[in-house]
């Protein structure tokens, strides 16, 4: 039974990686859709989220079946429970990518994003996609150092988010309230997406080290950091 | 062992109810804080979220201990796994109440909410608090009919959210961009808070009936609905 058990555990891990890849791709495509006002691309992201939800249900069913059949304890039990948490993070990330795409669709054929914010939104979208790609890699490799990098990427996301707000609150803002509302929501979607990617990576850190990511990061004193 | 087991299961349920009560109170107090620009009240909500996080950690540890020691199967297993999910919903709801309070603190001594939106925000805050109170009651009573009511309350929340946007996008909006940004985020926080309360109730429905809430609601044909 031991082999079948580890096969099942592996297949849960693979499901998580597939979810991370799907939602990483989704946020990248949603960003392109909103920057280019590409309705077709937006629709494909919106429709594609169903697959992410399906994967989550499959993964949940597999995890529960594994708990019932194999009754894991200690670390193995923690892995299964943590996988459930990660799948929830990833499912929610998919929703956020879908929100970005829905905003693109809502404003089509107009562009939701004014030209002077194009670069910032592009950066937020790219960073979100990279964060999720790294989260997928962390699930595969269980590389704690890589996982800790995500916290720094998330700081970069916070900085971009602040840049966005500075633009919004600048007296020279001339794009009106509707665009301000859109940009506010969009900023929030990217920020939350990044939080979920970090959360996935941090859960791996906790499984591997038994410590929370912030405890580990607090230890080394890096100069000029 | 059977009795100890059910005691443990009950204590998880009690933990969930306590979490729901704390976050329900938090959203009510955060709403008062932002409407009255009451810094002390805002601070108390912000500090109080730590207790919610602690409760979640305790609950998670208890659930994992129960899985390891008692190795429940079938319905009992689903209850434990679902409890983990509910605790995540409630923890997140606590964060959202904290976000409302932080906005109150950020704008203090100014009022974040203009007078003409006071009534709408008050209604959203009260509705959020009622939704969470009902969610707590659903956990205790496992009353499916009550759980289904939450979907209707959530529709009312969506309506309030739309009202808020109509105000924002009205040509007569005269409160500037910063307030528009604040109100946009605030609307999002209440909407997400309500979603989590509905999610908690729906998870109970699924445990009790084996059906998803939307499948059950689709069944009866109510005239004029």
From TrEMBL, chains A, B:
Cell compartment(s), UniProt:
Cytoplasm
Classify the main location. cytoplasm
GO terms under biological process: intracellular phosphate ion homeostasis; negative regulation of phosphate metabolic process; phosphate ion transport
UniProt keyword annotations, A-Z = Cytoplasm, Phosphate transport, Transport
Domain of life assignment: Bacteria
Q: Does the keyword Cytoplasm apply?
A: yes
Pfam families named among the record's database cross-references: PhoU
Self-association or partners: how does it assemble? Homodimer.
Function noted in UniProt: Plays a role in the regulation of phosphate uptake.
Please report the name of this protein according to its UniProt entry.
Answer: Phosphate-specific transport system accessory protein PhoU
């Amino acid at each position: 039974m031991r082999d079948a058990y580890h096969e099942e555990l592996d297949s849960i891990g693979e499901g998580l990686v597939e979810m991370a890849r799907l939602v990483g791709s989704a946020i990248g495509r949603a960003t392109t859709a909103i920057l280019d006002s590409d309705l077709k691309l937006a629709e494909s992201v919106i429709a594609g989220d169903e697959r992410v939800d399906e994967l989550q249900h499959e993964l949940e069913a597999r995890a529960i079946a594994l708990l019932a059949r194999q009754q894991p304890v200690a670390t193995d039990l923690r892995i299964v429970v943590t996988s459930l948490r990660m799948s929830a993070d990833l499912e929610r990330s998919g929703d956020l990518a879908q929100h970005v795409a829905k905003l693109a669709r809502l404003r089509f054929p107009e562009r939701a994003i004014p030209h002077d914010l194009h670069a910032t939104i592009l950066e937020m979208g790219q960073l979100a996609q990279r964060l999720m790609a790294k989260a997928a890699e962390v699930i595969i490799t269980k590389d704690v150092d890589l996982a800790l990098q995500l916290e720094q990427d998330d700081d970069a996301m916070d900085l971009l988010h602040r840049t966005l707000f500075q633009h919004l609150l600048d007296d020279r803002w001339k794009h009106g309230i509707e665009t301000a509302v859109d940009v506010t929501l969009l900023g929030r979607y990217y920020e939350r997406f990044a939080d979920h990617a970090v959360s996935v990576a941090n859960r791996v850190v906790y499984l591997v080290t038994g410590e929370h990511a912030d405890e580990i990061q607090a230890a080394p004193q890096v100069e000029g950091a």
